[in-house]
Amino acid sequence: MPRYAPNKVETAVKRRYFELLREGYRGAAAAREVGVSTSCGSLWFIDAGSMIVDDPAPISPRFLTQDDRIAIADGLHASRNVKEIAADVGKSFQTVYREIQRNSKPGGRYQPWWAHNQALLNRKRPKAEKIRADEDLRGVVREKLTEKWSPQQTARFLLRAYPDQPAMRACPETIYRALYAGLLGFKDGKLRTGRSKRKAHRRGVPVPNKIKNMTLVHQRPLEVNDRAVPGHWEGDLIIGRHQGSAIGTLVERTTRYVRLIHLPDGWKAPQVRNALIAQTASIPYQLRKTLTWDQGREMALHQDTAALTGFRIYFCDPHSPWQRGTNENTNGLLRQYFPKGTDLSVHSAQDLRTVAQELNRRPRLVLGDKTPIEAMRGYLTRPITR
After folding, report:
1. Where is the Integrase catalytic domain positioned along the sequence (predicted)?
2. Which of the residues 20, 48, 154, 311 could staple to 291 if both were Cys, CB 3.0 to 4.6 A apart?
3. 140 and 112 in a common domain
4. Mean pLDDT, the chain, as a whole number?
C-alpha cells in the first residue's frame, strides 16, 4: 500500500472527504464533492481500515481530536521530535507517545483516520469492567492488595505470572478504578496509603500561575533578611473546620509583633483585601514596608492591597513555608488559642485583639527576653527610614 494516495492531495481535502463519510455520504458522492476520483477516495477509505465510526457528541478537550491526529501524522512524516509535536497540538508528550503506541496500524505506521477510528471504537460505552467480569483476576488482585502491594506492583506481577493469558492482566488504572468502585472489597482492597477516593492529578500539563503578576520572595530587598530594620511582615491564614472560616495572621519579622485579621465575611480574595486594608491602617506608615505571603488564592487581588496599604507584597515559592518561617512559628503558637478542626467564626474582633495582646506581652528568648511590644516601642522611639 503506498504511503499516501497517488495524487497526494492536500490534507484538508482528505479531512473533508472523511467528514462527508461521517455525515452519511456514499464514497463516490464524497469523492465528487471534494474533487477526487472514486478510486482515490476508495484508497483512502481502505487505508483508514474500511470503516467509519461516527464522532460522538462534543467531549472533553483533554481527548485528541481528528485534527490533532492529523498534526501528529504530519509531524511524524516530517521526522519531528515527539515533544515538538506535542507542543504543536497543545498536549503533553506522554499523551502523544501513548497515542502513537496505541493507535498505529499493525505495520507500525501512524495513519490519522485509522487512529481516529480506533480511538472512537475503544471509547464506546458501555464496556464490561474487566475485573468485575473475571473472578480469577479479581481474586489475585485482591490478594496482592491485601498484602499491601501497590496497583503498579500488582500489574507488573500479573504480566510476569500470566505471560500467555491476556485475560489475567490489568493495568494500574484498571485496578484503581475497580478499587474505588468497590469491586475489591472495602477492607481487603484498601490501598496502603489509606485513601478511599481518587486524588486529582495533572501530570504533564503545566499549571499556570494562580496569581497574576506575582513578585517572588527572591526579589525582596536584602535588608529584609538581616532583620535589622522593622517594617517587614509575613502573613498567612489559619483555617477552621471544614475550611469554613479563617483568621488572618501578620507578624513583624524583627520584633515578632503579631496582628490578627478578623475575617467575618469569609476569606476569598475580595474579603481578605478589604480586611487587610481596613485593619492595617493603624500600623504606622513607616512600619508598612513589605509583606511576604504564600501563593494562596486569597491574595489574588494583591495589587489592590499593595496600592491601598503601602506594603510591597512578595510571594513564597510553592510548598516552601520556611520562606516565611516567623509566621509559621507564630501560627503554631496561635493554635493554642484556635485549635485545628474548630470553627473560627465564633471569635470576635475583640477576641482576636485579646489573643494578639497576650502574645505580644509574652517575653521571647530571640528578643533577649523582651516582649514584642517592648521591642516595637524601642524602634518607634528612634527615627525609622523607609
Report:
1. 226-380
2. 311
3. no
4. 86
Its domain, for residue 170, covers: 130-180
CA distance 252 to 243: 26
Any domain includes 167: yes
Domain membership flag for residue 204: no
Cα angle 233, 235, 238; round to 5: 150
Q: Would you call 182 helix, strand, or coil by DSSP?
A: coil
- pLDDT tens for residues 235-256? 999 999 988 999 999 999 999 9
Clarify whether residues 221 and 111 are in a common domain: no
Condensed to tens digits (0 to 9), the pLDDT of residues 341-365 reads: 999 999 999 999 999 999 999 999 9
Residues 44 and 166 in one domain: no
Grid cell 519531528 — which residue?
A: 80
Is the Cβ–Cβ distance between 27 and 38 less than 8 Å? yes
Torsion on CA atoms 316, 317, 319, 325, rounded to nearest 10 = -40
Total number of domains constituting the chain = 3
All three cell numbers of 132: 468485575
